[in-house]
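Request: When convenient, would you put together a sequence paired with its structure tokens?
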Amino acid sequence: MKKFEWSDQPQQTAYPVAKAGYPFIFSAAFVTLVLALIGFKGLTFAGLLVTLFICFFFRDPDRVIPVDENGIVSPADGKVVVAEVVEQNDFIEGRSMKISIFMSVFNVHVNRIPFSGIVRDILYFPGKFFNANLDKASKDNEHNAIIVETEEKITYAVVQIAGLVARRIVCGLTKDMIVKRGQRFGLICFGSRLDVYLPENIKLNVSVGDTVKSGATILGFMK
């Protein structure tokens, strides 16, 4: 029987919402309340729909993580748009396996750690806001890279990339922090992309077009 574990303690609520979403939710709810008090029924209904959608967008469901000491879990919900070996990148040395996951506004946007280790560096780059499903978004868009070293001294990178609508990247990690596979570490607001740069020789478990779930889908296996 396949085993699973909790990387974070389960939340004590029926509908967990990411804390970063509270300001958006409260702002939308306040505007909706004002519209209701003024008596604008149509706008009040529209405001209610927007508030509900924002609650939906910032949902933060608990996930059980598959137990496999070599398994690399997906850092995001979404669709795999790139899964290929690249000759070089800005985050780890040499050839690497690049896996890109595009998140639409309907996906859960909470990000999770792919593989346990220690955070060696966090690199933030301001940039543009191209559509995140375009490959040029990896280099040109605003992005935040987390460089992690495993116990076996293997280095990999997870890159949070802002999209066409996204205007805020949230990362709760600090340098030298010890992180666990499947642990929540941040999110990107309103449509975005995650790039993962892994050792070239990993055993790949996904392909372009696959739908993946953060913390639950195994992208590949370390060798």
Notes: Residues 77 and 107 are 6 Å apart (CA to CA).
